[in-house]
Write a structure and sequence with these properties.
auxin signaling pathway; 2 domains; 283 residues; globular; cell membrane; mainly alpha; single chain; two-stranded antiparallel sheet; amino-acid transport; symporter activity
Length: 283
């Protein structure tokens, strides 16, 4: 799905660039004092760093993916290769989307690559791209929510061990499909969670700001700190050795990046709230 809608966006950007028409661009993006104020440009840069951190915070699903691998060849070798190929591929698409999107729309390019860029024709192609986005997000939502669902359900089962509502499995016979077992607590809890998160998303449509904030809060501890510390512990690395030193420097540098990104995202949210209208998308 990502490959499909990203390729569509790239193709439309290339078509717009080839079709002519001059857009205002510069080496450093939007111009301070012309498009935005100096402080606003700095805050937007910090927010963009948070968006990038969110895009690379794949640690939430890394273990989930590794659990599906066979034991031969070893999982660590497979995951090293898969991570390398995956990061290189996504980086290539991110860079192409950013560069070609900016070349096509210049300093007026909004954050949403497809729905905000002014791509309205051909309609069928845009509809297909948005269907791909919907399918992608529905699947990704399920994957990212599974740890939350599992934690709450396991904690509840341990807390109320005698509750039939929480622990009971009820057989449901569906014609031509067989028998399925339904847990009422699981149905109610997961449905409620989805409804609440959907309402929050509609009430507070600050897409880029929230992405940057989530990315900044999760990037350093999950994607940088814990993996580095686990690697140091597992490999029994000597303290103050060359590798230990540069890994620590990398960790602290990423912490600073995360703090900067969080500050930018919080500032962006505060600015968005000033012109906030419920259930309306922010421009």
């Amino acid at each position: 799905m990502s490959f499909a809608y990203s390729s569509i966006g790239l193709g439309l950007s290339i078509a717009k660039v080839v079709g002519g028409g001059h857009v205002r661009t510069s080496l450093t993006g939007v111009e301070a004092g012309v498009d935005v104020t100096g402080p606003e440009k700095v805050w937007r840069t910090f927010q963009a760093i948070g968006d990038i951190a969110f895009a690379y915070a794949y640690s939430n699903v890394l273990i989930e993916i590794q659990d599906t691998l066979k034991s031969s060849p070893p999982e660590n070798k497979v995951m090293k290769r898969a991570s390398l190929i995956g990061i290189l591929t996504t980086t290539m698409f991110y860079m192409l989307c950013g560069i070609l999107g900016y070349a096509a729309f210049g300093n007026d390019a909004p954050g949403n690559f497809l729905t905000g860029f002014g791509f309205y024709e051909p309609f069928w192609l845009m509809d297909f791209a948005n269907i791909c986005i919907a399918i992608h997000l529905i699947g990704a939502y399920q994957v990212f929510c599974q740890p939350i669902f599992g934690f709450v359900e396991k904690w509840s089962q341990g807390k109320w061990t005698n509750s039939q509502f929480i622990n009971g499995e009820h057989a449901l016979n569906i014609p031509f499909c067989g028998t399925f077992y339904v847990n009422f607590f699981r149905v109610v809890w997961r449905t409620t969670y989805v409804i609440i998160t959907a309402l929050i998303a509609m009430v507070f449509p600050f897409f880029n700001d929230f992405l940057g904030l989530i990315g900044s809060l999760s990037f350093w501890p999950l994607t940088v700190y814990f993996p580095i510390e686990m690697y140091i512990k597992q490999s029994k690395m000597k303290k103050y050795s060359f590798t230990w030193t540069w890994l620590k420097i990398l960790s602290w540098a990423c912490l600073i990046v995360s703090i900067i990104a969080a500050a930018g995202s919080i500032q962006g949210l505060s600015q968005s709230l000033k012109k906030y209208q419920p259930f309306k998308a922010q421009q």
